Amino acid sequence: MNTAKPETIDQYIADFPAEVQQVLEEVRSTIRQMVPDARECISYGIPTFDMDKSHLVHFAGFKQHIGLYPTPTGMEAFKTDLAPYKQGKGSVQFPLDQPMPLDLIRKIVEYRMEVVRGKISNQKK
């Protein structure tokens, strides 16, 4: 990978091998379809979608997985669905050797949209 920090999601994705680029673009496209008006940016060094001046969701590429960062509230709300995947406090790892769970990503993004809009409490359950 290039050591220069990317300024755009396109630059970020371009720094990965073709197979990983394809999966990153699938994740990006899935999120973009859910929130076409969201602002794409790089935050914390990774691709981020912002909505209503708040971070909606982040994602990142790695050698063997794609990381999704829906903040702890997004993780808590989908605890059962995310159980098969390796997780951190506010992240989940989707292995590259398995189909990307795009329907689950859609559900998580939809949930995060509701949180950002204030329709669901931003507090952990």
Would you kindly provide a written description of the structure presented here, covering whatever features stand out?
The chain is of the alpha+beta class. It has one domain (9-115): Aspartate Aminotransferase, domain 1 (Alpha-Beta Complex), CATH 3.90.1150. The protein has 5 helices and 6 strands, in the order ααββββααββα. It has helices at residues 9-14, 18-34, 71-77, 79-82, 102-116; strands at residues 39-43, 46-51, 54-61, 65-69, 86-87, 92-95. A 6-stranded antiparallel beta sheet has the order 1-2-3-4-6-5. Strand 5 (86-87) and strand 6 form a beta hairpin. The longest helix has 17 residues, at 18-34. It starts with 8 loop residues before the first helix and ends in a 9-residue tail after the last helix. The model has no long low-confidence stretch (mean pLDDT 91).
Tell me the name of the CATH class: Alpha Beta
Query: How many runs of DSSP E, i.e. beta strands?
Result: 6
**Architecture in CATH?**
Alpha-Beta Complex
**Kindly, what is the distance between the CA atoms of the first and last residues, rounded to a whole number of angstroms?**
38 Å
The oligomerization state is single chain
Question: Whole-number average pLDDT?
Answer: 91
Within the CATH hierarchy, at the fold level, what is the topology? Answer: Aspartate Aminotransferase, domain 1
Overall tally of domains: 1
Shape: globular
Into which percent range does the helicity of residues fall? 25-40%
Biggest β-sheet description: 6 strands, antiparallel
The portion of residues forming beta strands comes to: 15-25%
Low-confidence stretches: none
Count of individual helical segments: 5
> Strand-and-helix sequence, N→C?
HHEEEEHHEEH
Query: Gyration radius, to the nearest Å?
Result: 14 Å
